[in-house]
Automatic annotation (TrEMBL):
Belongs to the actin family. ARP6 subfamily. The lineage of its organism: Eukaryota, Metazoa, Chordata, Craniata, Vertebrata. The keyword Cytoplasm applies. CDD domains: ASKHA_NBD_Arp6 (cd10210). It comes from the Eukaryota. One of its GO terms (cellular component) is nucleus. It comes from Pleuronectes platessa. SMART domains: ACTIN. Keywords: Cytoplasm, Cytoskeleton, Nucleus. It is found in: Cytoplasm, Cytoskeleton; Nucleus. SUPFAM superfamilies: Actin-like ATPase domain. The keyword Cytoplasm applies. This is Actin-related protein 6.
Amino acid sequence: MATLVLDNGANTAKIGFSHEAVRVISNCQFRSKTSRLKTFTANQLDEIKDPSGLFYILPFQKGYLVNWDVQRKVWDHLFGKEMFKVDFTDTSILITEPYFNFTSIQESMNEILFEEYQFQSALRTNAGSLSAHHYFHTRPSELCCLLVDSGFSFTHIVPYCRSRKMKEGVRRINVGGKLLTNHLKEIISYRQLHVMDETHVINQVKEDVCYVSQNFCKDMEVAQNKAEENTVMVDYVLPDFSSIKKGFCKPREEMMFTGKYKTGEQILRLVNERFAVPEMLFHPSDIGIQEMGIPEAVVHSIQSLPEEMQPHFYQNIVLTGGNTLFPGYRQRLEAELRSLVPAHLPVSVLQPADPICYSWEGGKLLAHNPDYDEMVVTREDYEEHGHCVCEDKFDL
């Protein structure tokens, strides 16, 4: 039986059969300014000639799957002829869901997977559990790891011991990629140009120019310098979707420090926004979110665990999720943890080569595990016992 691994994130779905490579596809629908009547789904974004003013229709709100109509359309597209050609009569699905998911959402998911799509078996788990499985598979001598999963809606800190989640140590920070993009839109709209409708473009700007500062105060001083002495300042050329399909940073030697460009390029000048936006991950209180930053939450999580295990967690901190791709993220987190953790305890923060697909790769490994058939709920089990068999089987 084939196994379809689906890491169903709030922003992107990481999907692929366990014997194939992964594909990362937008988990949403779009409407564009130019063709408002037509709705585009998932990877059909490439068909939109002018993605400025894109309107996103998301199945997830605040990290939880609430819009089943949109999610069904995305799944129909993914499972259909154009994409994965899923034969439901001979396929098992391994799918992720958020931590502490609501029972009503879990029951709806069971119904849709077994009754509508009629998968032969299913395994529901957290993306973090798959990441932990991946980590312990590659480092079999390790007993513990602490996942820092910073995604679209939230940042979660989750400790695992021998692939078991330690629920008392789970911490959530309500800062994710969506909030960072929205905050950047507000700053740019206030300072330069109204971009509140340009989520797609500004998300690209964020990914291209933002970084995590190693010394916030020092970078703020540099950002106040004039002209060439201001090494933080970049000029970002916005796409016009005819001659410029994708935005890019001007090379430093081409930057006009007078701020005047002769060509028809539309320029965003970005200075302290570059590091002030990702700083929210470390200091959410900067924008009025009264919560701990990631370093404090890591320490808080580990201190809630048995004392003899704590050194093992500090030595095995694993970063996953899209926000970990900001340059300087790993170094800053390690430096801040070093200042918070007792000097005799070693601190080690590991960043995988592909933090976005790390959990999917863990799911792929799990699908090939000899015990996989013991973990799933089959369609016969579900038809006989209903939702309660899923609750018993899936340790969430």
